[in-house]
Amino acid sequence: MRAWDCAADVVVVGYGGAGVAAALTAREAGADVLAIDRYLGGGATALSGGIVYAGGGTWVQRDAGIDDDVDTMLAYLEAEVGDAVSAATLRRFCEQSPAMIDWLTGHGVPFQASLCPFKTSYPSDDYYLYYSGSENSGGYRDLAKPRQRGHRAHGPGVSGKALFGPLAASAARHGVRVRTGTRATRLVVEDGQVTGIEAVTLDGAPAAVRRRFAALARISAKPGVYHPGLRNAMEALLARIERKHGTPVRIQAKSGVVLTTGGFIANGAMVAQHAPDYPWSQGLPLGTAGDDGSGITMAQAIGAASGKMDALSTWRFIAPPSALFGAIAVNALGQRMIDESRYGAALGAAVATSPGHRAWLLVDAELEAEARAQIGPQSVWFQRMQTERLLRIGRARGRTVEEAATRAGVDAAALRETVDAHNRAIDHDLPDPLGKPDDIRRPLRTGPFTLLDISFSARLTYPMPMLTLGGLLVDEDTGAVRAEAGGIVPGLFAAGRAAVGICSNSYVSGLSLADCVFSGRRAGVHSVALRGS
Question: Pick from 117, 118, 135: which is nearest to 54 by CA?
Answer without folding.
Answer: 135
